[in-house]
Write a structure and sequence with these properties.
Elements lengths: L17 H11 L7 H28 L7 H12 L20 H15 L2
Helix pairs in contact: 2-3
Length: 119
């Protein structure tokens, strides 16, 4: 499913504006700028990502017998295929399960803590 989308600021379907890209860049790397071709590439990748996620989530919705795309469909696709969990979305938040600590690792941590406490 490919769409020809004009990714200029005047396009109302624009995924991310030049101003927003600049704002994000300044948060990560103050003083840096994006060349127009890099900006175009980032926009194209964002569009492709959203199309792909939407398409796959729709397949999941059909598979579960749904007629409406729901947040849980998108969440499931993002978790299973991208290892991304968006907090606050989906019907059943999963608790984070941590593996029990490795005894050998625990011993090493205790040794490090003891060494740090000694003058």
């Amino acid at each position: 499913m490919s769409h020809n989308v004009n990714l200029h600021a005047s396009d109302p379907r624009e995924i991310i504006s030049s101003a927003k890209l600049t704002e994000l860049l300044q948060e990560v790397a103050p003083g840096e700028t994006l060349r127009p071709e890099v900006e175009e590439m980032l926009r194209a990748h964002a569009e492709e990502f959203i199309e792909s996620v939407t398409e796959q989530a729709c397949k999941l919705a059909r598979h579960r017998g749904g007629t409406t795309l729901e947040a849980r469909d998108i969440q499931m696709h993002l978790e299973k295929n991208w290892n991304v969990r968006v907090p606050g979305y989906g019907d059943d938040p999963k608790p984070v399960r941590r593996a029990p600590p490795n005894p050998v690792h625990q011993q090493r941590l205790q040794q490090v803590q003891k060494a740090q406490q000694q003058p």
